[in-house]
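stage 2 :: seqdesign
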């Protein structure tokens, strides 16, 4: 009887070692726009889609994760932010100089829903309970970087013209649902999403208004 009681206490302690996490945001969700070639972002999953996807991971197992990938390595493009937008409503060209010092961080983004969490490990974000290792992602999905850059742009803004400078990038995304089991008991279930930047640069556009 005492052995059963100790086992039960240890089991529940292991199951609830981390608090439940409803959602986690790593930055890319706040981008001005994200355009996927197909599929959808985790934040746009519907309740019916979750119900369907969960059916692929609800079969119980002794230990570990069950994973169902909905979208894998889907190509995307994005505009993360508009650095400046200037409109010349006068009659003569205006010389404009723009300077910016900024820090570019994290080429890798993670997001989760349900009771799957995102945590920090060795100064980078990871899914709790080693989920990313079970996802078997390629090496480029495991690297995060930090760079500093300085921008100085001089240009003439013609009359009746608007100039926009924004950060444009391309990347890939993988998402789906997963469930973790401990002694056949489901401990965690939710959605996961991994976002990787493959290229990013400043794009300057002149538009006649």
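stage 2 :: out
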């Amino acid at each position: 009887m005492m052995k059963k009681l100790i086992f039960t206490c240890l089991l529940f302690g292991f199951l609830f070692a981390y608090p439940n996490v409803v959602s986690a945001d790593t930055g890319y969700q706040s981008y001005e726009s994200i355009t996927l070639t197909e599929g959808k972002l985790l934040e746009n999953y519907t309740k019916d889609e979750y119900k369907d996807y969960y059916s692929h991971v609800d079969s119980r197992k002794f230990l570990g994760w069950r994973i169902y990938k909905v979208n894998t390595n889907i190509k995307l493009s994005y505009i993360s932010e508009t650095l400046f937008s200037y409109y010349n409503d006068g009659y003569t060209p205006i010389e404009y100089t723009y300077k910016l010092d900024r820090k570019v961080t994290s080429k890798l983004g993670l997001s989760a829903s349900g009771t799957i969490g995102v945590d920090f490990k060795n100064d980078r974000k990871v899914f709790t309970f080693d989920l990313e290792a079970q996802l078997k992602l390629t090496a480029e999905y495991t690297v995060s970087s930090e760079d500093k850059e300085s921008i100085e742009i001089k240009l003439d803004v013609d009359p009746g013209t608007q100039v926009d400078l924004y950060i444009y990038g391309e990347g890939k995304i993988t998402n789906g649902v997963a469930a973790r089991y401990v002694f056949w008991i489901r401990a965690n279930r939710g959605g996961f999403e991994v976002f990787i930047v493959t290229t990013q640069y400043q794009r300057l556009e002149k538009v006649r208004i």
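stage 3 :: structure notes
- Residues 2-15 form the longest helix (14 residues).
- Residues 20-208 form one domain.
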